[in-house]
């Protein structure tokens, strides 16, 4: 190779000579130049010398983008994602036939010349002159490698890609200088290794290992002579010589490579002839790129992992930085997904809700005490066709979910109960809880300014059944999911304790906003939340009051330049949301729901379990959220558009006159949990003693709220027990404490006025 000048480059004459041959013979530039115009060519070459020297001395070689493997908690593959399907391998792991084939057809004098093949330039120049067109180029493998580096650096930006491959003098100057540098720094074997790993072989395969897997379902080190010749032939024009779509053209090209290998002495003429007669022998593995290919219905979880990576600052300060790392790939991401749990979740969803149903179902399972997401699935598969969706109904909008989440109904009530217990209310707290009542006139908020019932129209609520008429204590009210009870509880403690509780439990709307301070949201779940949010919040009950933020990633290793390094990953943050006593009380209360309350159809056998049902207005949503000491899960059933009323509807082949949280999402939860927990230890809750209500006693029926009659009646007489300081004009509307209620805190019922309908004559109330 010519000696270098002190300035680091070749002499002006050498530069001009080399650039003349390369630029003249490169693509569109050559096509417009006539050979006799030597004067013009000389001027062009002379004019490029200064530009050549001004180029940076070092080629910045970006790490090659590779495939990323997403694994479950046991290290088994979930999916492979990539911007470019590539697996970088050493030259030792590439078949010698492949090495010889690519050199023979692309640059047969590769080991004899420097960065630029002057002999090849002259040969091409002569041939092009005789043909009157660009019949042959003169780029060496080194120059082709440099060009591929430009393309790799451009990434998926179409403008940058166009600039990287444009046939201009400027680009050829850059290519030439960097080729000289690469030859000096890397040597022939490393250049060949890099070239075989970077170049495109068609069918979404970048690099020889991916190409070998794509076309022959084998490693590059195992390629035979005819297989290697086929792959080497593809490089010149991956679309034209694509063996999958044009076997005849690919065969012709393969045979050309084999003939060239014989001509340069890489194989014998006999071996080449034999290989030319061999069939292509394709054993194509279809591209499997992206979360859509995930196993066990884990596509939505896979996309969640991707969104975590692209949004969490731990992987880069800016979105652009995180995207660059993700697209570069080479990541091995071990997730929290438990294959047993995931399989059980998906099978239960499939059994209970068909993908063709008018409604959908989503379920998420979380481990209490760690925040690990163990399972996530839904009834409609991931995709873009009919009865498919790309929306993850289990998560918030920012992570690929619906815009607002889904109203949770009565599954919100345990948050109110937990807040009240934290405020010191007894676990057997009682309220009148009539069948029907208006919302309170005012309820205190965190701001200090009360929420006011503006009466446009007068807000009213009622219980599910007319038989649900109080008074009730907390245990029975939770089991029956008595709406009026929990609104009265909210009016008693105010909304701020509930806000503090939901904040501590990570409860936010599907759009990321806080739950609004209005009674319907703060008690009856009229605000949209996601199953992941609910499962994580309920997990705090299971872990005796410790809330842990959900996590999906256990560890990540990245391979760059053959070296592996570990990346930092997001950690779950655990904090105390409530006292152990409060959590134990909620566990005891919600155990009653699955034992004898609205969640009986969801109850598990043989292990402690607790949960809560929820159904929203017009039955557009139905929920069951429940847990054991070691697993928490939320199941939602409804219409993503919120337009389907689940009455007189068939779901999963079963007809429902009306859907309830207990009869549709409940069994999904039960079956998913049963399979997920099979063979695993059955933990136990720490239960609290909740006294049974005292039996009714006969009284004198004098209607003063302390009588001994205990007989039920209507239109009770005068009473002195108006509801919550007279918020309802001094009386306990529709069945208050007047005329024989129950024994309640003296400071709770202070109003004056007539008792409402459905009062209870005589006292003998429950304590």
Cα-atom radius of gyration? 37 Å
| Order of strands, widest sheet | 2-1-3-15-16
Strand content: 5-15%
Shape: elongated
What does the average pLDDT come to?
Answer: 83
Biggest sheet character: 5 strands, mixed
| Uncertain stretches | 1-50, 697-767
Helix content: 25-40%
Number of helices: 25
Structural class call reads: alpha+beta
Distance N terminus to C terminus? 101 Å
Number of strands: 24
Model description:
The protein is an alpha+beta fold and 767 residues long. A hairpin with a 6-residue loop joins strand 4 and strand 5. Helix 5 (96-106) packs parallel to helix 12 (225-234), helix 7 crosses helix 9 (169-186) and helix 12 packs across helix 13 (247-263). The longest helix has 18 residues, at 169-186. The radius of gyration is 37 Å and the shape is elongated. Residues 1-50 and 697-767 have low confidence and may be disordered.
Secondary structure elements and pairings:
Layout: H1 12-24, H2 27-31, H3 38-46, H4 49-54, E1 68-71, E2 77-81, H5 96-106, H6 118-131, H7 141-154, H8 158-165, H9 169-186, H10 188-198, H11 208-216, H12 225-234, H13 247-263, H14 269-277, H15 299-311, H16 319-328, E3 331-335, H17 339-352, E4 360-366, E5 373-378, E6 406-407, H18 413-422, E7 430-431, E8 436-438, E9 442-443, E10 451-452, E11 460-462, E12 472-473, H19 474-480, H20 483-493, H21 496-504, H22 519-523, E13 528-529, H23 531-542, E14 546-548, E15 553-560, E16 563-567, E17 574-576, H24 580-596, E18 610-615, E19 621-628, E20 631-638, E21 647-651, E22 654-658, H25 665-677, E23 718-722, E24 751-754
Parallel strand pairs: 1-3
Antiparallel strand pairs: 1-2, 3-15, 4-5, 4-20, 6-13, 7-12, 8-11, 9-10, 14-17, 15-16, 18-19, 19-20, 21-22, 23-24
Helix pairs in contact: 1-3, 1-6, 1-9, 5-12, 5-13, 7-8, 7-9, 7-10, 12-13, 13-14, 15-16, 17-25, 18-20, 18-21, 18-24, 19-24
